[in-house]
Amino acid sequence: MAHIVLNRKKLQENYRFLDELFRENNIEWGVVSKVFCGSKVYLKEIMALGVKQMCDSRITNLKIIKSLDPNIETVFIKPPAKRYISSIVKYADSSFNTEYETIKMLSDEAVRQNKTHKIIIMIELGELREGVMREDVIDFYEKVFHLPNIEVAGLGTNLTCMYGVLPNQDKLLQLCLYAQLIEARFNRKIPYISGGTSVTIPLISRGLLPKDVNHFRVGETLFLGTDVYSSKPNPEMHQDVFKLYAEIIELREKPSLPDGDMGQNLTGDTLEFDEEENSSSHRAIIDIGLLDVEDSHIEPADDSLKIVGSSSDMMVVDLGENVSGYNVGNLIEFNLNYMGILRLMNCDYVNKQVVAE
Questions:
Q1: Nearest to residue 93, comparing CAs of 77, 76, 106, 79?
Q2: Which keywords does the record carry (predicted)?
Q3: At which of 208, 233, 258 does a domain end?
Q4: Catalytic: which of 9, 10, 34, 189?
Q5: 117-159: pLDDT as tens digits
Q6: Among 208, 206, 169, 177, residue whose Cα is nearest residue 193
Q7: Of 299, 298, 301, 295, nearest to 324 (Cα)?
Q8: Domain carrying residue 351
Q9: 2 in any annotated domain
């Protein structure tokens, strides 16, 4: 059966690298754990590293985190839906918010549960995802800070995730400026300026991160060792904390071109082939398919191999002349990108394992 593997030692080393970087720059940070999809096996691994704050976009995952360690601070990292208000207050210590009516409901629920719920007000800085418009931030804050059992713990922003807008010094200085304006006008402290995600990390070493940005939420760089800003690997980190292994269930020498009248395939595509490139090669069918992960998000670790087709439950890998001597029953190793890990972790049909090193 196909399985995804987490390397404990490489995860530990990536975590230590980031933790030291942030401590040296007086930055607090939380681990974005949504890639684990609530897996207790993997959540325990990250908790064992001494994580103090975990951020997730699924309330069911935060519930699991609290069941494993009620002392870990939990952050719900998208504006809450109304139907989840009670659970947000119960399982999330803080949440990202952009709508006054939602915060009002959080306030009412926090009163009922006799809790103080922290919020981070997200500001729109060009990505056009969640965020209060800049010209409305001061008025928005003035309405919110009067609400009972609500504490404005910070201002934040999101960049890159949807359209790829990169953070820069100017945008982050704007975020800091709004915090300063609020503090001056209302004589209230804004503890967190949460302007950092994986893509913002390279600004630290370049000396471009405003000193007031003091909070990061990090997932991809921790798990993939990537410089997200430049779309390159970070040479001081591991890129293979996660690996996928899929078993060969058929291996035959077959032609490279299909034979017959061509219609649409499973995904609705009509494929075209160059008739002049007809040849034959060894082809392996592996026990994983589009139900588990899209083939664009995985890559054979053996660069002599190539994924040439996928259906719902199987993928076909071209082995060429099979110089490595693969056989039926052997495992093929794959490297993963962030979406590949996320899809595989969200799939109940793929086993999750941990190796020590």
A1: 76
A2: Isomerase, Pyridoxal phosphate
A3: 233
A4: 34
A5: 999 999 999 999 999 999 999 999 999 999 999 999 999 999 9
A6: 177
A7: 301
A8: 242-355
A9: no
- Shared domain for 331 and 264, answered yes or no, is yes
The answer to whether the CB of 247 falls within 8 A of the CB of 331 is: yes
Q: Which helix (H) or strand (E) holds 252?
A: strand 242-255
How far is 121 from 143, CA to CA, in rounded Å? 12
Nearest CA among 101, 107, 112, 216 for reference residue 154: 216
DSSP output for 177-228: HHHHHHHHHH-----EEE-B-GGGTHHHHTT-S-TT--EEEESHHHHH-EET
The last residue of one of the domains, among 184, 208, 233, is 233
Q: Taking the complete model, does pTM exceed 0.85, yes or no?
A: yes
C-alpha–C-alpha distance, residues 326 and 337, integer Å: 24
CA atoms within 13 A of residue 236's CA, in its CB half-sphere: 9
Q: What is residue 167's DSSP assignment?
A: P
Choose among 223, 159, 216: nearest CA to 28.
216
**Mean pLDDT on 112-118:** 98
* Distance from C-alpha of 325 to C-alpha of 156, rounded to nearest angstrom: 53
CATH classification of the domain holding 313:
2.40.30
Domain assignment of residue 92, yes or no: yes
* Listed residue (287, 285, 286, 298) closest to 343, CA to CA: 298
Question: Is 34 an annotated catalytic residue?
Answer: yes
CA–CA distances in Å: residue 262 to residues 98, 187, 265, 273: 50, 70, 9, 10
DSSP 82: G
Rounded to an integer, the average pLDDT of 322-341 is: 97
Contact 145/188 with Cβ under 8 angstroms? yes
The residue to which tokens 């398919």 are assigned: 289
